[in-house]
Amino acid sequence: MRQTCYEKSVNKIEMAKIQLDAAIAAYVQGRGIEAITLAGAAEEIFGAMLSRDGKENAVEKIANLPSMRQISPKIKVRIDYLNDVRNNLKHAKDKLEDNFFIAEFDPFIMIVRALGNAEILNVKDSESMRKFRINKFT
Predict the structure, then answer these.
(1) Is residue 98 situated within a structural domain?
(2) Is residue 114, in this structure, part of any structural domain at all?
(3) What string of pLDDT tens digits covers the 138 residues of the chain?
(4) Is residue 90 within 8 Å of residue 40, measured between CB atoms?
(5) pTM, full prediction
């Protein structure tokens, strides 16, 4: 899907789907940093929409898993832990965080989180979202 740059009205769900499609394309092409950044943006939009509807989003569901409670008893600390790589890619407040580690699975996990939020919102899958879910990129 080609997007042109001009003024137009946008729908947040459609915008997040475009970001997620671009994230999936970047992931398939081995561009992990772009995949994390784009999927993280889509995940955050879908997640905020769920939160405003009083529904638990993907990162909250993961943070509430019993094994995650080992990190901290506070959910905010666990969510910050889960969002660490995404946030390091988009913020530069702390000089101590100028260098950080990105694991091989981080782009995949961020895409899965965005897909999870989209599913909870009943967002209709794009073709690339559908292919990612069934692992068909041929």
Answers:
(1) no
(2) yes
(3) 566 677 778 899 999 999 999 999 999 999 998 999 999 999 999 999 999 999 999 999 999 999 999 999 999 999 988 988 787 777 667 776 666 667 788 899 999 999 999 999 999 999 999 999 998 765
(4) yes
(5) 0.85
